[in-house]
Amino acid sequence: xxxxxxxxxxxxxxxxxxxxxxxxxxxxxxxxxxxxxxxxxxxxxxxxxxxxxxxxxxxxxxxxxxxxxxxxxxxxxxxxxxxxxxxxxxxxxxxxxxxxxxxxxxxxxxxxxxxxxxxxxxxxxxxxxxxxxxxxxxxxxxxxxxxxxxxxxxxxxxxxxxxxxxxxxxxxxxxxxxxxxxxxxxxxxxxxxxxxxxxxxxxxxxxxxxxxxxxxxxxxxxxxxxxxxxxxxxxxxxxxxxxxxxxxxxxxxxxxxxxxxxxxxxxxxxxxxxxxxxxxxxxxxxxxxxxxxxxxxxxxxxxxxxxxxxxxxxxxxxxxxxxxxxxxxxxxxxxxxxxxxxxxxxxxxxxxxxxxxxxxxxxxxxxxxxxxxxxxxxxxxxxxxxxxxxxxxxxxxxxxxxxxxxxxxxxxxxxxxxxxxxxxxxxxxxxxxxxxxxxxxxxxxxxxxxxxxxxxxxxxxxxxxxxxxxxxxxxxxxxxxxxxxxxxxxxxxxxx
Length: 496
Fold this sequence. Notes:
Shape: globular
Number of strands: 13
Mean pLDDT: 78
Strand order of the largest sheet: 3-4-2-1-5-6
Strand content: 5-15%
C-alpha cells in the first residue's frame, strides 16, 4: 500500500507543478499575444517568477497538508486550502514587488489571471487524481490496516462502520482491550489481538498503519499509556480518537484555556455570526430569483387548479430549527406528477426562513419519536430543500440517513452547500433527460423507532467518524450501503 500511495503522491506533486506552469503559460498568451506563445517568449523575470511560484505553491501545499491522504480522500475540504496556497503565491510576488521598489516586477493583470487559472487547474487536477485514488482503492490498493483500542459497544460500532476496504479504504485487523482475553472474537473475523500496552508490537505484526482510540472503552491507566505513546515524535502510526458526547460535538466548539488548562467551549448553535449571515443571504437571493423565474409555472398551475376546482397548494407540518413546527408548502399532487415540481412552492418556506436551500432532511411530526435520540443534532440547523440525504436512494436505511444529516451539520461550509446544489442540479437534469430517478424524496413511510442501545449508537458513531464519502457516492447515485455516511468526508467522497 505504501508503494502505491507514494507513487500517487509523487504524481500529484508533479501534476501541481505542471498546473501552476500551465496556468501562467495560459496567462502569458493573454498578456503577450503578439510577443510569445506560452512561457518561451516571456521576459526573463516572468519565467523566473513562474518557477518560484511553482516551488512556493508546492512547498506551501506540503506544509498545509494537501499532499496527505485525508486531502485526497477527504472530500471538499482540500479545495479551500488549494485556494489559500495559490493566494499566498500571488501575495509573495506582490510583496517582492513592494520591497524591490520602482515599477512592479511583473504585470498585475498577468498575476491576477495566473492566480485564477492556478486555482482552477489545481482543483481540476485534484479531482482527476481523486478518481484515480478511488479506482485504486476499489481494486484493493491504498487500503489501511486499522487497530481499534477499546472493544466496548462504541468500538464495535466504529469497527462496523470502518471495516469496508472498497468503500472507506480501511480494514480493521483487530481490537486492543483491557477486559477481554486475546483471541476473543468481538465481531466475526475480528478478535481481540492483545492489550493496549502492546500497541506498537501488535501494529508491527499486523502491518497496521492507524489506531483509533475509544477513550471510554479503556481503563484510565491504558488511556494515559496510549496517549503518551501516540504523542511521541517517533510514533509510526496515525492516531485518532473517536469522541464521546456526540450531541455536544455537533455544535461549534472553540478551544480556550482556563488556568492554563485546555478547554472546549461549546456554542449553543451550529451556525453563528458570518456563517449564518452568509447562508441566509445565499438562501434569500437564490430562492427569490427562482420564485420570479418560475412565474409562468405559478400562473399555469393557478389556472389549472381553478379549472379543476382544487386548491393549488397543500401544507404539511414538519419540525425545523430548534424543533419548532411549521407548514411546508407544496403543490397539489393533482396538478403535477413530478415530485420535484410538487416541492417547488417550498421555495416560499426558504424565503420565510423556515427552510434553507441545503440542510438536513425535514422531520415530520409523526417521525419525532424515531428521531428523539438525535433531535439535539438534527434541530441545530434549519432543514433543507436538498442535502446529502436527497442525493441518496429513497430506500436509504434510517440510521444511515441520520448519519448523513449529522455529518452535514457538523461539517457545514458554503463550499459544501455549493457541492450539494451542483450535484442536485446534475441529478435533476439526468432525471429529466433519461427519466432515471436518482434523488430521494420526502414522501417516505414513517421511520420506525430503532430499538437497542447498540443500534442507536451506530448512527452517532457514523457521524462522529466523518461521512466523507457520503456526497461523492450519493452524487454518483451508488446504491446505499450501511455506514457510507462515515468518514474517510460529506461528502464520502468519491464516485466509483
